[in-house]
Specification:
This protein has about 350 residues and is an alpha/beta fold. Helices cover about 45% and strands about 15% of the residues. β4, α6 and β5 (about 155-165) form a beta-alpha-beta unit.
Length: about 350
């Protein structure tokens, strides 16, 4: 800023003394203009994103671009990324395959790590290894690139996704950011995932770990798989319906990521869930109401296990997770209640 002020003197009218009132006014206006321009420039971000082609990543990219930020998509397949973000429609995006990740990370203000193989599938021993490795490998690669960057080229913030599976499952307990980890497979995945993210150089880089709940939106996630059942008049509770459903609307999650990038108060573990979790039976009932469909026919546990195997534990067991840190930070939810979130989603689905 000192350089900007110093440089400003060369713009003063040469025929006036620096003590002249008009010269003083001109100097003040010039400095203010330059300060404003510097502030605007500082607010612009270049954000490198893994998992940008996914359900959450696509929405985050759109929000960043709408606010005139720059985006670098870190991908393993430039062809796939270009099909999701065609250059004609997204001229401001840079797409980088593995060999170019390092260059993108070094030139970024921030990095968001959303990469990971979906868990809502049938778990074989091979699939379980891939679920773990897809998260660890991407996170490790990004962290290495951040740490290897020089101090003047290192991103200032690293937002890395994790999941509420960290806490394990319970029908009776509540969990917040201070709760211990569970002892099942998903808890193990989350511990390893977060452990790799924590290897980032936190002396220079602000680390935010977002433990994300079930993300609701019409274009992906768990809800996209449930909606067809309700449209066919076959929707209902999954299993007993007593399990807790800790959810968040995709728009709120994207806002939470965006705020984590901009606000230096956001640091450490933050639960990416809405403030009002519900039992799964209530969620299904609300979904049936907003879609004008019945929700009385439960999906048997055996049917889910036949389709998902061990992956059925994601929906057959649940956890009540509260976003204490987000509340303390004053984060404002667009959709704090599941009924409002489902109405916003369903209005685009039901004629």
């Amino acid at each position: 800023m000192a350089m900007a002020v110093g440089a400003g003197f060369s713009f003063f009218p040469t025929r006036l003394s620096l003590n002249h009132p008009k010269a003083t006014a001109t100097a003040t206006a010039t400095v203010r203009t330059r300060i404003c321009r510097c502030a605007l420039k500082a607010a612009e971000m270049t954000v490198s994103i893994t998992g940008a082609t996914g359900f959450i990543g696509r929405r985050l990219v759109q929000k960043l671009l709408s606010d005139d930020h720059k985006v670098c998509v870190l991908t393993r397949s430039a062809t796939k990324a270009a099909s999701v973000f065609p250059p004609s429609a997204y001229p401001g995006i840079r797409i980088a395959e593995l060999e170019d990740w390092e260059q993108c990370v070094k030139g970024s203000t921030a990095v968001v790590n959303l990469a990971g193989m979906p868990i809502s599938t049938r778990w074989s021993p091979q699939i379980k290894r891939e679920i773990m490795q897809s998260r660890i490998n991407a996170t490790s690669k990004v962290v290495d690139h951040i740490n290897n960057a020089g101090a003047d080229a290192r991103p200032s913030v690293f937002v890395s996704a994790t999941a509420i599976g960290y806490y394990g499952t319970s029908e009776t307990n509540s969990f917040d950011e201070t709760s211990p980890s569970g002892n099942d497979y998903l808890a193990e995945v989350c511990r390893e995932w977060e452990g790799r993210a924590r290897q980032v150089n936190e002396e220079d880089v602000r680390l935010v770990l977002l433990r994300i709940g079930v993300v609701l939106g019409k274009d992906g996630g768990a809800l996209a798989k449930m909606i067809p059942l309700f449209m066919m008049f076959a929707g209902g509770p999954l299993g007993t319906g007593r399990q807790w459903f800790s959810w968040i609307h995709v728009d709120d999650l994207v806002d939470l990521i965006y705020e984590s990038l901009k606000n230096p108060a956001y640091r450490g573990v933050i639960n990416g869930t809405a403030p009002n979790p519900v039992r799964l039976s209530e969620m299904c009932e609300r979904l049936g109401q907003v879609m004008g469909r019945p929700s009385w026919l439960p999906v048997p546990e055996l049917a889910l296990k036949a389709v998902l195997g061990e992956g059925a534990t994601v929906v057959l067991e649940g956890q009540k997770v509260l976003p204490v840190r987000a509340s303390q930070l004053g984060f404002s939810y667009r959709y704090p209640y599941v009924g409002d979130a489902l109405k916003a989603i369903a209005k685009d689905l039901v004629p």
